[in-house]
Each structure stands twice: as C-alpha cells, then as structure tokens.
Design goal:
This protein is of the alpha/beta class. It is built from 14 helices and four strands. It has three domains: about 110 residues, 3-Layer(aba) Sandwich (Glutaredoxin), CATH 3.40.30; about 120 residues, no CATH class; about 35 residues. The N terminus is likely disordered.
C-alpha cells in the first residue's frame, strides 16, 4: 500500500513536504528573520565577583530589549567601574549632577558607574545597569538624533523597573499643588536638585508609559524611525500619534490632571484604606491624649483621700476598735 501511494501520488508528497518546510522556516509574526546578535560586555576595573554580577545583569537586560521589539546591539559595550569620583567626573566631563551614580555615553558605546562597594546606592545595582543600557540602545535606534530628555529617561526607567509607590505620591502631590513639570522643562534635568530631579524622573516614566499605553509600541518605533530620518520632533510625533510635539505635551498634561486629583486618588482602593487607617490612628491618639488630660485634671482637683474618707476623718478611724485589745 505504501508502495502504491508512492508510485501514484509522488507530486502530492513533494508539495506536502515543501509546505511543511515553508511553515517551519517562516519567522514568527512581528519578528525579524535575521538572528539577533547580542553585544559583548567589556567590564573594566571591577573585582571578579562584581564583574560576573554586572555581566549577568546586562546579559539578561539585553535579552529583554531584544524581546521588546528586536532591538539589537552587536558591538562591544564598555562598562567602566569608577572607584573614585574624580575618575567618574573625568569620563563624563564634569557635566553630571552630584546625585548621579551612573552615566551612559552613547557615542562611545560606554557606560560608567560608581563602584557599589565604595559608594552606597539608594537603588539596586541591577536598576542602574538596566537603566544605562537602555540609554545606549535607544540612542542606537534613534541614529544619534536628539531625543526629548523625558523620553530618554522614561524609556530607561521602564527597562530599569524603577517605578515605586512613593513616586506616585510625589507626582500626585506636585500635580495637586500645581508644581508638576512640563515635558519640555525636563530637558534641564541635569541642572535640577535631587528632589526636583526625582520628580522629573517620575514624570518621564509616566510620559513614556502614557505614550506606549495610548499609542502602542509600534507607534513608538515609528516615532524613532521618523526622528532618525528627519531629526525633527514635530514630523516624528505627527507620523506616530497624529499630533505635533506641543499637542502631545498638552495631551499628556491633561492626562496628569485626570490621573491625579482628589477624587481619583481616593477612589484608589489601596490609597483609600491607607487614608482610613491614618485617620483612625490620628483619632485614637487624639482621644487617648484627651482622656489622659481629663484624668490628670480630675486627680488634681479631687485628692484620693477625699473620695474614700469624709472630711474630718482619718484613715485609721474607718474601723474603730480594730487593733484595740
């Protein structure tokens, strides 16, 4: 039977095998058929254990960026670990704020960090490394075109996983008090003090997240492609989101006002119960203080002996005859 099928339907089997080969060789939807080549990390001036840790973190981050949208970086990336502030400043050119612990230098395929063994970080080493690697990748995608600072930092914060609950509070407080920053103002980030810079990073994250949530990853890649082609923000934003840069900033500002107001903040379940617990705690402390104050006033006004012994009597006269034999 097998022989008869082979003799009578040879063309059917050939076409079937060709179809199988085409299906198996077809790249997944949305991916590039070319294999992604990963970079080599050249880590300098680091102790062996730290060097291994850095390489492991950056390798994982590189895979994440490749998975996001086929972002590839085939070159060698140099990672400098500075053991002195003077060494750090000499590399970044003295233009870096004193609160920074890491810096990416895209034109040199280089990042530099202060040694975590010598300088305490307020965040995890992995966050710093992922953040700086994201800067290098984004600038490579943009072809060295000038990116808005909020987009540069917001993308790096997304890849660095650097959003925390406290950031929400800080941005919310700024919006409610009218102290929020415009996206354009964030371009001056390096001149900000640490507190204002922290707000700028939080708003950068929200700006980038809003862009991706509202318009999608493909629109962001289209923006980068158009920016690379024209090196102008207005045509790139118009192609990607249908608005010029000023229009997108206005839209983002309106989004912040909607996201952060008293009604929306209190509608957040977690925040609502935090506020309730705080109010109950304050009420308890106030009540306790009030009761304590009343007891003290009562004790001062009415001595204890006057309560149990009528006026003119002594304690030893309460039970006459007791103790008299």
């Amino acid at each position: 039977m097998l022989r008869r099928i082979t003799i009578q339907r040879p063309l059917s089997i050939v076409f079937f095998l060709l179809a199988c080969c085409l299906v198996m060789s077809r790249p997944a939807r949305g991916t590039d058929a070319r294999p992604i080549i990963h970079p080599v990390f050249e880590i300098r001036d680091a102790q062996p254990q730290l060097k291994q840790t850095i390489d492991s973190i950056l390798t994982a981050a590189d895979r994440q960026l490749a998975a996001y949208g086929g972002i590839a970086f085939a070159d060698t990336i140099v990672v400098l670990v500075a053991t002195r502030h003077e060494q750090f400043d000499s590399v970044v050119g003295g233009r870096f704020p004193d609160w920074g612990v890491g810096c990416a230098i895209p034109e040199l395929n280089t990042m530099i960090i202060l040694s975590p063994f010598l300088y305490p970080y307020q965040i995890e080493l992995a966050e710093v490394l992922r953040h700086e690697l994201a800067h290098l990748y984004l600038h490579r995608l943009a072809g060295w075109s000038r990116l808005p600072r909020w987009m540069d930092e917001g993308f790096a914060m997304l890849i660095g996983h650097q959003w925390r609950f406290g950031d929400d509070w800080q941005v919310g407080r700024a919006v409610l008090t009218g102290e929020e920053l415009t996206l354009h103002e964030i371009d001056a980030l390096n001149r900000f003090g640490e507190g204002k810079a922290h707000l700028a990073y939080g708003q950068s994250y929200l700006g980038m997240k809003y862009l991706l949530d509202e318009y999608g990853w493909d629109s962001f890649l289209l923006f980068i492609s158009e920016l690379r082609r024209h090196n102008q923000l207005d045509p790139a934003f118009m192609a990607a989101v249908g608005l010029d840069y000023a229009g997108f900033q206005d839209e983002y500002a309106a989004y912040l006002k909607t996201k952060y107001n008293w009604a929306t903040l209190l509608s957040d379940t977690m925040l609502f119960w935090i506020v309730i617990v705080l109010l109950l705690l304050l009420l308890y402390l106030f009540k306790r203080r009030h009761v304590k104050k009343k007891v003290e006033e009562w004790e001062r006004a009415t001595p204890t002996d006057d309560i149990f012994y009528p006026a003119g009597e002594r304690k030893d006269q309460e039970y006459p005859g007791i103790g008299q034999q």
